[in-house]
Automatic annotation (TrEMBL):
<dbReference type="InterPro" id="IPR016024">
    <property type="entry name" value="ARM-type_fold"/>
</dbReference>
<feature type="compositionally biased region" description="Low complexity">
    <location>
        <begin position="174"/>
        <end position="184"/>
    </location>
</feature>
<dbReference type="InterPro" id="IPR004155">
    <property type="entry name" value="PBS_lyase_HEAT"/>
</dbReference>
<feature type="region of interest" description="Disordered">
    <location>
        <begin position="174"/>
        <end position="199"/>
    </location>
</feature>
<dbReference type="Pfam" id="PF13646">
    <property type="entry name" value="HEAT_2"/>
</dbReference>
<protein>
    <submittedName>
        <fullName>HEAT repeat domain-containing protein</fullName>
    </submittedName>
</protein>
<dbReference type="InterPro" id="IPR011989">
    <property type="entry name" value="ARM-like"/>
</dbReference>
<dbReference type="GO" id="GO:0016491">
    <property type="term" value="F:oxidoreductase activity"/>
</dbReference>
């Protein structure tokens, strides 16, 4: 798709009804080019929830080529752009998205933080991403780590349990004797509900 066609499609997106807009977004995704990806990313900055959601769904299927641009959009000044980028990254399921998504738990906007929780749960469908999420949690200060684990337990104890098991495995590898022998490898007293779900 040439730049001229992409520009035409973008103009169509602005002036058509919802079903036609969905058709154009689908067309942009069929043969992704640098220009069409740029247009889809730009849609994440639009006020229309419908358009943002559809673009995020399509971007999530495009893989590595959009991972870094989506991570960059996490720094947008628009809360709804950040939330859309978060959801696209969660749907993508790429393990490399774990650390940037965990950082977004600090976002000042509650809607964005809620989107992060949803994205983290989606990310955990991929076992490799679950390991990366556990590693990202490990880098947090104790209070933030507790907040992150509690948030997962509240939403899905089974997922939280899997993350916790990976954290325990990492702690056991790092210090085979110390805290692991004491029965609390992280020293944060994780919720029993998460431990039970993991077993």
């Amino acid at each position: 798709m040439v730049a001229k066609d992409v520009t035409r499609l973008w103009e169509e997106l602005r002036h058509r009804d919802a079903e036609e807009k969905l058709g154009w977004i689908t067309q942009l995704a069929q043969n992704p080019t640098e220009e069409s990806i740029e247009v889809l990313l730009d849609v994440l900055q639009q006020e229309s929830w419908f358009l943002r959601d559809q673009a995020a769904r399509v971007l999530a299927t495009m893989g590595e080529s959009v991972l870094e641009p989506l991570v960059q959009y996490l720094g947008s000044g628009l809360w709804y752009t950040r939330a859309s980028a978060v959801l696209a990254l969660g749907r993508m399921g790429n393990p490399r998205a774990a650390a940037p998504l965990v950082e977004m738990l600090k976002d000042p906007n509650r809607t964005v933080r809620d989107a992060v929780w949803d994205a983290l749960l989606l990310l955990c469908r991929n076992e490799l991403a679950t390991r990366e999420l556990a590693q990202a949690f490990e880098t947090l200060p104790e209070r933030a780590k507790r907040f992150a684990l509690d948030g997962l337990v509240e939403r899905d104890p089974e997922v939280a349990g899997r993350v916790l098991l990976h954290m325990e495995d990492r702690a056991g590898e790092a210090d085979a004797g110390g805290a692991a022998a004491a029965g609390d490898p992280l020293g944060v007293g994780e919720p029993d509900e998460a431990k039970q779900a993991a077993r």
